[in-house]
Amino acid sequence: MNSQIFQKIRPWRSILYLILLVSMFAHSGFGQSKGSIQGRVTDSKTGEGLPGVNIHIQGSSYGTSSDFDGYYQLDGLIPGEYTLSFSMMGYAPYNEKNIAVVLDIPVQLSVQLKFNVLASPQVVVTSSRKAQDILESPFSVSAIGPREIEAKAVVNMIDILSYESGVSTIKGQLNIRGTSGYTMGAGTRSLLLLDGIPMLGSAAGNVTWATIPTSEVDRVEIVKSGGSALYGSSAMGGVVNIITRNAPHKPETRISTKIGVYSHPRVDEWRWRESRGLLYNTEISHSRSIGNHAAWIRIQKRSDDGFMELNWEEAVNISAKLKLNFGSAHSAAFFINILDDKAGLTSIWKSSANPFEAPEGSSNDGTQGRKVVLNGHYNYVYSPDLAIKTKTSAYWNEWSAFGVDPDYSNENRFYEEVQASKSWTKSLTSIFGLTFQQNNVNAQIFGDHNSNSFATFLLLEKRLHQFTLSAGSRWETYQVDGKRQDEVFTPQLAINWKPSPWLGLRISTGKGFRVPTVAEMFTSARRSIFTVEPNPDLISETSINREFGLTLLAGQIGFLDLFKLDAAIFHNKFENFIEPVPNSDAVIHFTNIADARIMGLELGVGLSAFNNSVDYKSAFTILDPMETDTEGEILDTLSYRHRYHWISSLGMHYWGMDASFEYRYLSRMESVELFQENDLTGADARVPIHIMNVGIGSSYQDWHFLVRVENVFQYYYTQLERNIEEERIATFTVERRF
Fold first, then answer.
1. For position 156, what pLDDT does the model report?
2. CB contact at 8 A, 366 and 406
3. Considering the domain boundaries, does residue 4 fall inside one?
């Protein structure tokens, strides 16, 4: 596809795609008589109606949610047998099978859901782009619910992701199963979605985590296998989809304040300020229904002194979401985020004797900017068998650096997607889609560049008794500055076997790819002792991902209320792997190293017990990350990867109190790029990571209180060389809802 084709694409192309897809997939369903299912969803213990329960017809894109009193209704159903799934955060999922729908006689179906403190979502949408039981997912998926987010009172979503199995972070860069390592913030192999829309920056392909309204998140889904066949470049190592909540039926106002105090360094010689550093975070949000529609708005003010000299931050963040419902056929949603922030800009410490201070002359270095994110969705359910979804997004970023090396960057990104989900029979479904993305950047260190991509994807899913076969593919073409950068075809194949209602086994293989970012190709910069030079000859990297896994989910076994086991063996082989490589003069170029492979094992367990008074989660990941030659011979260990990763958390809930204990372990990094250990002097020593956090919270009427201490034992370590990690911090959070 040449540049002339891209130039001819106009803003109304989504409407043309929609008309085309409706014409392709429409059938005679409008001329047939219909039936319906209606009823009420209640709490099994209290008998009260549950608002906002998701009710979904399995094998289709059709569904609804319960109203304020728990009532629901599904209309327009063709006569036949259906299976309904009921799911809600904090409650065990429930399926009702073999519901016989007949003409013009409503089926009455009321169900009761049982509360469960583990509260992990069991219905996910990311791995197959549609609602799906987690036991039937073709790939490894983990999910985080709002209860876990609230229990940690996180302000930045990255702070909770690092406590998920197989997920680690370095300086805010997401790393799933070791695929990304650390690329100086100039590219990632893990894709971040917000409500299904890509959120990576247009120039560096990085994530601005502050644009995610953490307190308004409904759930987070993490797909740990490659997702390029459905989501394209940067998804070759996995996908994180953050799904924002819809406003509840009842008006609600929330006011929250979080105050934190950093500890002084444990070593007196490291102390660099007289007073302790403070953190303040205040949020005000309001949500309400407006007839059949709903909306929420959130305003956040953050001030953080940081734990070291250039770790400070000041930010004002405004987010809002509007959900429109026009009957059971049409719905739309709009999301906006505006972030104004100012922060210190650090590269390395002053010295090993002054690890919390900035290098000489850099103490006034910082950045300031404004980011605007605007997302929109429109869903049209033509029939229970056919749904059309359109998505559009715009992103603007103005950024400047001040201090020793002034800098600036102006970026924008526009994204559009159309997707059609079709159920051909009760056992055969398909998803077809088109995407278009345009990026522009004008920056001092990158230059003036633009890029475009166009893609089409298809997923077919066939059910054969206890087996589900998924076959998908994506064709994508990229241009940079009007020239074709790459054209890639990425197929994938997966089989899921669900021999019982509590066990699912899966096996998958697929091809992944990632196009180099503008930052990797064109960065020309010097900061402190670092020098980065451009490499416009970079080519795309590709991978072959393979995985075998199982998920076991059972409830009510003796004293156990819920037990979950997830295990996976994975093998990822990469070609033309892109890594930042310094030469003998410490000048860094992003380079296509020969090849690489990452293989490993992941094992996780979660349970709740004693009438939901105790919950426990633990996961262990083993990686073997190796650089190889074209013949597969091992050359070296890949840099910035932890071979062993273990996370564990325990929650206890008694007498209205909630206590939590969290532990995170990562083994010592075996390889880095910039500063190697000196065995004689002990300089640049690398150590394993041991972090312990504790918290205790309680609720009284409309008030909720939480006290947390993170890095309790004030453990010192580095991940990126000569960058010490966060000190111990004690926080107090108070929130009122009314």
1. 85
2. no
3. no
Claim to verify: residue 565 and residue 628 sit in the same structural domain: yes
Residue 23 located in a structural domain: no
Question: Facing residues of 179 across strands?
Answer: none
Do residue 85 and residue 196 come from a single domain?
no
Judged by DSSP in three states, 520 sits in helix
Residue 218 CA from chain centroid, whole number: 12
β pairing state of 111-113 and 35-43? parallel
Residue 425: partners with Cβ closer than 8 Å, 6 or more residues away: none
Domain holding 150, by residue range, is: 123-737
> Is the domain of 245 the same as that of 329?
yes
Average pLDDT score, the chain: 86
User: What pLDDT is attached to residue 204?
Assistant: 66
**CATH number for the domain including 158?**
2.40.170.20
Number of domains present in the structure of the chain: 2
Work out the burial of residue 622: count CB atoms within 10 Å of its CB; fewer than 13 is exposed, 13-18 middle, 19 or more buried.
middle
Residue type, 618: S
pLDDT for the residue numbered 26: 44
What DSSP string runs through 115-161?
A: B-TT----EE-TTTTS-EEGGG-SS-EEEE-HHHHHHHT-SSTHHHH
Contacts of 23 (CB under 8 A, 6+ apart): none
SS3 230: helix
As a whole number of angstroms, the distance between CA 736 and CA 738 comes to 7
The one-letter code for the residue type at 101 is: V
What is the tens place of the pLDDT at every residue in 391-423? 999 999 998 988 877 888 898 999 999 999 998
Same-domain check for residues 45 and 185: no
Q: Report the DSSP pairing between strands 80-88 and 91-101.
A: antiparallel
| CA separation, residue 683 to residues 96, 255, 587, 642 (Å) | 63, 47, 21, 20
| 22 part of a folded domain | no
Q: How many residues make up the chain in this entry?
A: 738
Q: What is the CATH number of the domain that holds 46?
A: 2.60.40.1120
Low-confidence ranges of the chain (pLDDT < 70): 1-33, 59-61, 68, 89-90, 116-123, 185, 201-205, 527-529
Q: What pLDDT, on the 0 to 100 scale, is given for residue 202?
A: 62
Q: Provide the pLDDT for residue 259.
A: 97
Measure the CA–CA gap between 656 and 146, rounded to whole angstroms: 19
Nearest CA to 198 among 481, 478, 435, 516?
Answer: 435
- pTM for the full model? 0.86
